[in-house]
């Protein structure tokens, strides 16, 4: 069964620090990868997506993809208390018509 | 505004009752999805539809049914056969298979 693995956390970082969230996946042929942020009681919102090996930056967020090692990461620079949420990693597995989600990592940013 | 609208926001089901959750999108997306999320868990796929008048079972389809009569609409019925329906239900859509999925605000279903 194709899975997406994330550490459930909580990951606690001080305000202003870099938060590093990691995700591993099981299908080397996967083509597209997504990070969603979910606040408590709310629906997931898309933060980043990445298709190619390497880094992709958008503001304070950087997504990193390493297809050889089958992991994707999300870095949040200058973390703010408003970044406190659960971060869901999602993978578009080859031959599967919907995204497969990890169970999420809960991030706590301490003021 | 373009987006995905789910209704109602909260829903209560009585024993033996079927209930229907609405999902409407005006993004002109072909594909639509239903996920279930239990507390502290990730999203599990219930059903999906790639095109009008066609839909496929996901990983946890038992006790649920769907229809896709219009491109904009993908309602989910939670039947009495679903013995543990209490969860947060999320509808999503996307343009094609390599694009991100976008979500509605969700419906929270509880048992009375």
Description of the molecule:
The complex is a heterodimer of chains A (111) and B (112). With 111 residues, chain A is mainly beta. Chain A is 0% helix and 53% strand. Chain A is built from no helices and eleven strands. In chain A, a hairpin with a 2-residue loop joins strand 6 and strand 7. In chain B, the strands form two sheets. In chain B, strands 2, 4, 5, 6, 9, 10 and 11 form a seven-stranded mixed beta sheet that branches. A four-stranded antiparallel beta sheet of chain B has the order 1-3-8-7, with no helix packed on it. The model of chain B has no long low-confidence stretch (mean pLDDT 93). In chain B, strand 9 and strand 10 form a beta hairpin. The interface between A and B is medium-sized, with 23 and 22 residues.
Q: Report the strand count of chain A.
A: 11
How much is the average pLDDT of chain B?
A: 93
Note the main sheet of chain B.
Answer: 7 strands, mixed
What's the assembly state of these chains? Answer: heterodimer
- Most residues in contact: chain pair: A-B, 23 and 22 residues
CA radius of gyration of chain A is 13 Å
Q: Taking all residues together, what is the mean pLDDT of chain A?
A: 94
What is shown here, in short?
The complex is a heterodimer of chains A (111) and B (112). Chain A has 111 residues and is mainly beta.
List key phrases describing it.
heterodimer, A: 111 residues, mainly beta, six-stranded mixed beta sheet, B: mainly beta, seven-stranded mixed beta sheet, four-stranded antiparallel beta sheet, 11 strands, 50% strand, globular
Task: Please describe the topology of this protein.
The complex is a heterodimer of chains A (111) and B (112).
Chain A: E1 4-5, E2 11-14, E3 19-25, E4 32-38, E5 45-50, E6 54-58, E7 61-66, E8 71-76, E9 85-92, E10 100-101, E11 105-110
Parallel strand pairs in A: 2-11
Antiparallel strand pairs in A: 1-3, 3-8, 4-5, 4-9, 6-7, 7-8, 9-10, 9-11
Chain B: E1 4-7, E2 10-13, E3 19-25, E4 31-37, E5 43-51, E6 54-57, E7 64-66, E8 76-78, E9 87-94, E10 102-103, E11 107-111
Parallel strand pairs in B: 2-11
Antiparallel strand pairs in B: 1-3, 3-8, 4-5, 4-9, 5-6, 7-8, 9-10, 9-11
């Amino acid at each position: 069964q194709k899975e997406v693995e994330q550490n459930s956390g909580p990951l606690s970082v001080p305000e202003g620090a870099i938060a590093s969230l990691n995700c591993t996946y099981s299908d080397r042929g996967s083509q597209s990868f997504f990070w969603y942020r979910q606040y408590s009681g709310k629906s997931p919102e898309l933060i980043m997506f990445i298709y190619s090996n390497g880094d992709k930056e958008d503001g304070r967020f950087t997504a990193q993809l390493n297809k050889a090692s089958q992991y994707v990461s999300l870095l949040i620079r200058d973390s703010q208390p408003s970044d406190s949420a659960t971060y869901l990693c999602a993978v578009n597995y080859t031959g599967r018509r919907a995204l497969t989600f990890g169970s999420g990592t809960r991030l706590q940013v301490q003021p | 505004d373009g987006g995905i609208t789910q209704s109602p926001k909260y829903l209560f089901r009585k024993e033996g009752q079927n209930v229907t959750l609405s999902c409407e999108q005006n993004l002109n997306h072909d594909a639509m999805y239903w996920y279930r999320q239990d507390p502290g868990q990730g999203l599990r796929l219930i059903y999906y539809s790639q095109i009008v008048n066609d839909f496929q079972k996901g990983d946890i389809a038992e006790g649920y049914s769907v229809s896709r009569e219009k491109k904009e609409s993908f309602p989910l019925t939670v039947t009495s056969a679903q013995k543990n329906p209490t969860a947060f239900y999320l509808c999503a859509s996307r343009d094609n298979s390599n694009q991100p999925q976008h979500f509605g605000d969700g419906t929270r279903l509880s048992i009375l």
